[in-house]
Amino acid sequence: MSADKLDVYRSKRDAARTPEPVPGPGPLPRGRDDTFVVQEHHARRLHWDFRLERDGVLVSWAIPKGLPLDPKTNHLAVHTEDHPLEYAGFEGEISKGEYGAGLVLIWDRGTYETEKWTEREVKVVLHGSRTSGRYVLFPTNGKNWMIHRMDPPPPEASRPLGEGLLPMLPEPRKRIPRDQRAYGFEFDLGGDRALLAVQNGETRLIAADGGPVPAEKTPDLGGLPKALLDLPAVLDGQIADVSGTPVFMIYDLLHLDGGALLDRSYENRRRTLDYLKLNGDRWQTTPWFPADGKPVLKVAHQRGFPAIFAKRLTSPYLPGMRSPYWLTIPTRTAP
Ligand code: MN
Predict the structure, then answer these.
(1) How far is the CA of 121 from the centre of ligand 1 (A)?
(2) pTM here?
(3) Ligand 1 geometric centre to CA of 64 (Å)
(4) Ligand 1 mean position to 45 CA, how many Å?
(5) Which of 40, 44, 61 is nearest to 96 (CA)?
(6) CA 49 / ligand 1 centre spacing (Å)
(7) Tens digit of pLDDT at every position of the chain (335 positions)
(8) 144 forms bridges with which residues in the sheet?
(9) How far is the CA of 175 from the centre of ligand 1 (A)?
């Protein structure tokens, strides 16, 4: 076994410019061939990188639609260069202009067993926190492989998305928190809080009490599934009245492509949402401002918004709960 397995990986990267691990040439580490990782990659095109530890490297595929949950739908998996084992723990921003520029977040990580590993078939059983089950990968044309789930869909795959989810709630405060660097600030535009489930080309708004949203308050969101690349998702926001027309103002992302993002930090959920660039006539992603609340409060006051939100950058999403992770500060306290 030689270290040449990582030559392609090294040739695409400049160790001085990328935060990614770039081990020098030398003998490869020995592992147990039982680690897998799925990394969500906000590159020029959104994809998930699926990596299996094998003979001292992570054998890798890029999957534009993520791991399939349904055995009836196979997904394209593009075989990519072997990655170093250290990469299984990597999260971070690869800067503009570098290979694979964009944010990398760990989507799932766990152990796996190999049932078969040949050039024509890789059959594994995954034990992750988001995904478990038997999968097979097989080449179809050059670098293009397919990934197929051999187990039946997990029970949650047959439930409607967003079922039982309630919005996370802010605690009222009189002023901006003193440790404001730990928060992201957003405008409260008023209007009704709602969650939006997007699945199978359809959209479903869920009111703050878990019930339906009245038809006259429902924006026309027909084009949103396409804007989301037909990936299933759950969004959180407010239905604002813009000159008599309802518009869904989006400020959080709770689920994307078969995975709940509730335990991902507010900052990383927000960065993922921004990356999706959801901006249409009837839906908009609202801005957020890390670390400095005063100018946000001032602008909110000038524009007549009722309040601002302060959301702790490291906080998870706690459905239906009111906690000090999220604060609401009325604009009347603005200078
Ligand atoms: Mn990638």
Answers:
(1) 22
(2) 0.92
(3) 9
(4) 9
(5) 44
(6) 5
(7) 455 899 999 999 999 999 999 998 888 998 899 999 999 999 999 999 999 999 999 999 999 999 999 999 999 999 999 999 999 999 999 999 999 999 999 999 999 999 999 999 999 999 999 899 999 999 999 999 999 999 999 987 888 898 889 999 999 999 999 999 999 999 999 999 999 999 989 999 999 999 999 999 999 999 999 999 999 999 999 999 988 999 999 999 999 987 789 999 999 999 999 999 999 999 999 999 999 999 999 999 999 999 999 999 999 999 999 999 999 999 985 45
(8) 78, 141
(9) 42
In angstroms, rounded to a whole number, what is the distance separating the alpha carbons of residues 37 and 251? Answer: 28
CA of 268 to the centre of ligand 1 (A): 17
Q: How far is the centre of ligand 1, averaged over its atoms, from the C-alpha of 141 (Å)? A: 20
Q: Element (H or E) spanning 297, and its range?
A: helix 294-303
Q: Measure 42 CA to ligand 1 centroid, in angstroms.
A: 8
CA atoms of 44 and 262, how far apart (whole Å) = 25
b/e for 158-173, b at 16 or more Cβ within 10 A?
A: eeebbeebbbbbbeee
What residue segments make up the domains of the chain, in order of their start? 6-157, 169-333
Q: How far is the CA of 160 from the centre of ligand 1 (A)?
A: 29
Distance from Cα 271 to the centre of ligand 1, integer Å: 17
CA of 272 to the centre of ligand 1 (A): 15
**Cα(109)–Cα(153) distance, integer angstroms:** 19
Q: Which residues pair with 307 in a beta bridge?
A: 188, 330
In the reported structure, the alpha carbon of residue 82 is separated from the centroid of ligand 1 by a whole-number distance in angstroms of 12
Centre of ligand 1 from the C-alpha of residue 76, in Å:
14
Give me ligand 1 centre to Cα 105, in Å: 10
Domain range 169-333, its CATH number among 3.40.50.300, 3.30.470.30, 3.40.1160.10, 1.10.10.410: 3.30.470.30
